[in-house]
């Protein structure tokens, strides 16, 4: 995965500077996911133009390699789970008509508005993470661990580190995890790499990690490896390559199952871009009365999730660990 | 209890309010209510019941001449709307930690150690978004008699599950509540079939309203049994991520209230813990720290709790001395 830099306001001189530097630093496909070469270019641009904004983005070649690794690592899960994915897709196609889709879009908009305070902080924390070289290294390690189906102590430590940086650990002072005043609510967070080719015929997907926002009553922490097949995170099949981060109601134990989701252009400037909104299949099929969705934000503000048609898919959590 | 100013209050009405809340006096807009606190009173609980679509809170709470709200009534009403429908916290500004609710409002004093001592005269004024609708005022002032027994009725709201006697999950709940010296006493077991409420898909935020599914469940339970014990409903399903919901924090200690009870998801792995957590809410404990979807941070305003994940009012099992003090002041606790 290469680190690419983008700018919302590129001057001619800054673009030329970037092109010049990029031409000097061709990265091999198997290079580290987040390389410093292009970031160095951006710094140069900043020095000149004082206006370019760095954005971390996964490269297509690296994602393809990562997806191939994931396909091998999760071959059994994919083979056994294809039926569940196809059943979900047919359920969505048969059960969600135009009226229900419109109701879900309205529910998504209402949820984005209600959770805008949380989403603004989530966005802000994610942006800060993307600009931190040491954090980027940890994200890279997590992404590789996910593709290799590896949940070891290092992975767990990395999850706790990134979870805290994002404010997604409830017991930490900087927690932004939304809760309920009158009840016991559990939620989880995670990251997913989308793109790089289909996992099954007609079913692109993502590989990633999911972890609890809370500790168990005995203080253990739950985490898992997640593989999703289907239109995910609002990205259309064949859509852009992405690393996304998400928060969703329910713990790791609730993360497996069918889902429906779509990308919604967030009308809230402070959040920005398109946000993936996703419900469990069970809740999504209820349309207007769907419950609290999960929210998916692209890695750094410039990486957008595609707005698109409502899609169904299936998430597998083949490895769960509470430790 | 003695009402000083309201001419409508009769001795019979006041006794009714004390015993079961069935004959609570009606508050007229602009009225200030006064109560004399008997010696050795455990706590002062006020429950306001009014229009289901109106928000209620206390515009004034004065104890021994000291005002704790400190916000003009008209400003408070605006903030009640904003906090409930906008910020999603239901906690309006002011010096009093209170939660505005639709239809029924509950407040218990003291809610933290170190507050002005309960005694002398308490004066109340009410803030509402619907000032012309009648409001019933229920007041409970239980004696400080060392009561530590919590009576409960258990309801299995399911087409399949049946509660065993004694329910196995209660051992875990009891072990947690032992920290406060509270003993759980199951008074009755019930099975509710065909209610259409065994699988609850949505819970209204920030709090359940008087017409929501949880309130409908409370009405069914209240019609079935009214022995004063707290109703605990165990359902097959709650929304994703929700293991339990308390209908108040604190909840109204009035068996006929739409908010009388707690609802738990029937997951054996967490049922005991969830029972302890939700019952603790109903008796008066708040989360150590809650971040609302809008990003507002609410705390329990107790000096001896810290968000570290280990507390019962997070996802842990510990209780602080301050929390135990709050729990033991609940009007729901009985001496045997």
What does this structure look like?
The complex is a heterodimer of chains A (323) and B (336). Chain A has 323 residues and is of the alpha+beta class. In chain A, 39% of the residues lie in helices and 25% in strands. Chain A contains nine helices and nine strands. An eight-stranded antiparallel barrel of chain A has the order 2-3-4-9-6-7-8-5, surrounded by six helices. The radius of gyration of chain A is 19 Å and the shape is globular. The N terminus of chain A is likely disordered. Chain B has 336 residues and is of the alpha+beta class. The radius of gyration of chain B is 19 Å and the shape is globular. In chain B, the strands form four sheets. In chain B, strands 10, 11, 12, 13, 14 and 17 form a six-stranded mixed β-sheet that branches. In chain B, strands 2, 4, 5, 6 and 8 form a five-stranded antiparallel β-sheet that branches. In chain B, a hairpin with a 5-residue loop joins strand 15 and strand 16. In chain B, helix 3 packs across helix 5. Chain B has six helices and 17 strands. Helix content of chain B is 19%, strand content 26%. The interface between A and B is large, with 40 and 47 residues.
Strand-helix topology:
The complex is a heterodimer of chains A (323) and B (336).
Chain A: H1 12-24, H2 37-49, H3 60-73, H4 75-95, H5 98-114, H6 116-130, H7 133-147, H8 153-165, E1 183-185, E2 187-200, E3 203-215, E4 221-230, E5 242-249, E6 257-265, E7 274-280, H9 281-284, E8 294-298, E9 311-322
Antiparallel strand pairs in A: 2-3, 2-5, 3-4, 4-9, 5-8, 6-7, 6-9, 7-8
Helix pairs in contact in A: 1-2, 3-7, 7-8
Chain B: H1 11-19, E1 26-27, E2 33-37, E3 44-49, E4 55-63, E5 66-67, H2 73-87, E6 101-102, E7 104-109, E8 120-128, E9 135-140, E10 149-157, H3 170-177, E11 183-192, H4 213-224, E12 230-235, E13 242-246, E14 262-265, H5 271-283, E15 289-291, E16 297-299, H6 321-327, E17 333-334
Parallel strand pairs in B: 10-11, 10-12, 12-14
Antiparallel strand pairs in B: 1-9, 2-8, 3-7, 3-9, 4-5, 4-6, 4-8, 10-17, 13-14, 15-16
Helix pairs in contact in B: 3-5
């Amino acid at each position: 995965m290469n680190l690419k830099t983008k700018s919302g306001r590129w001057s001619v001189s800054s673009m030329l500077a970037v092109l010049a530097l990029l031409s000097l630093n061709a990265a091999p496909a198997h290079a580290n996911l987040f390389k410093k070469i292009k970031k160095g270019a951006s710094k140069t641009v900043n020095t000149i133009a004082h206006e370019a904004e760095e954005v971390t983005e996964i490269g297509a070649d690296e994602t393809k390699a990562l997806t191939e690794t994931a396909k091998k690592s999760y071959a059994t899960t994919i083979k056994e789970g294809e039926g569940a994915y196809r059943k979900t897709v047919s359920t969505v196609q048969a059960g969600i008509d135009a009226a229900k889709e419109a109701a879900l879009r309205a529910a998504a908009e209402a949820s984005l508005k209600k959770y805008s305070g949380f989403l603004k902080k989530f966005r802000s924390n994610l942006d800060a993470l993307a600009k931190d070289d040491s954090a980027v290294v940890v994200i890279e390690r997590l992404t590789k661990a996910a593709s290799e189906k590896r949940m070891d102590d290092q992975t767990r430590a990395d999850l706790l580190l990134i979870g805290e940086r994002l404010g997604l650990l409830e017991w930490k002072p900087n927690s932004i995890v939304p809760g309920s005043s009158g009840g016991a609510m559990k939620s989880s967070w995670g990251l997913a790499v989308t793109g790089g080719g289909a996992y099954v015929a007609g079913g692109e997907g993502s590989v990633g990690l999911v972890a609890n926002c809370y500790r168990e009553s005995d203080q253990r922490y739950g985490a898992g490896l997640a593989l999703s097949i289907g239109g995910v995170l609002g990205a259309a099949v064949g859509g852009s390559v992405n690393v996304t981060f998400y928060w969703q109601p329910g713990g790791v134990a609730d993360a497996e199952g069918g889902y429906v989701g779509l990308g919604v252009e967030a009308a809230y400037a402070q959040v920005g871009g398109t946000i993936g909104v996703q419900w469990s299949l069970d809740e999504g099929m209820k349309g207007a009365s769907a419950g609290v969705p999960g929210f998916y934000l692209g890695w750094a503000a410039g990486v957008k999730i595609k707005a698109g048609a409502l899609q169904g898919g299936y998430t597998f959590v083949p490895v769960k660990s509470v430790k | 209890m003695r009402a000083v100013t309201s001419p409508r209050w009769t001795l019979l009405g006041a006794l009714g309010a004390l015993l079961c809340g069935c004959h609570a006096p009606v508050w007229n807009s602009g009225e200030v209510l006064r109560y004399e606190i008997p010696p050795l009173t455990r706590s002062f609980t006020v429950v306001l019941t009014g229009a289901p679509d109106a928000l209620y809170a206390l515009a004034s709470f004065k104890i021994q001449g000291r005002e704790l709200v400190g916000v003009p009534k008209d400003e408070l009403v605006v903030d009640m709307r904003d906090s409930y429908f906008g910020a999603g916290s239901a906690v309006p500004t002011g010096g009093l930690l209170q939660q505005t609710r639709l239809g029924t409002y509950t407040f218990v004093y003291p809610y933290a150690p170190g507050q002005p001592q309960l005694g002398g005269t308490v004066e109340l004024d009410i803030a509402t978004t619907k000032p012309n609708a009648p409001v019933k005022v229920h007041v409970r002032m239980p004696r400080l008699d060392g009561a530590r027994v919590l009576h409960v009725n258990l309801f299995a709201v399911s087409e399949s599950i049946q509660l065993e006697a004694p329910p196995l999950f209660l051992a875990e709940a009891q072990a947690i509540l032992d920290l406060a010296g509270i003993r759980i006493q199951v008074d009755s077991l019930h099975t509710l079939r065909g209610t259409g409420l065994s699988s609850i898909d949505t819970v209204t935020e920030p709090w359940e309203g008087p017409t929501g599914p949880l309130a409908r469940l409370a009405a069914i339970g209240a019609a079935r049994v009214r022995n004063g014990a707290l109703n605990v409903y165990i359902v097959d399903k709650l929304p994703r991520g929700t293991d339990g919901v308390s209908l108040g924090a604190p909840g109204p200690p009035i068996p006929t209230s739409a908010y009388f009870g707690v609802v738990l998801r029937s997951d054996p792995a967490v049922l005991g813990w969830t029972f302890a957590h939700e019952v603790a809410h109903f008796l008066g404990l708040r989360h150590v720290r809650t971040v609302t979807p809008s990003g507002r941070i609410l705390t329990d305003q107790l000096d001896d709790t810290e968000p570290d994940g280990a507390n019962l009012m997070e996802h842990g099992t510990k209780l602080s001395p301050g929390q135990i003090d709050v729990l033991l002041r609940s009007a729901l606790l009985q001496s045997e």
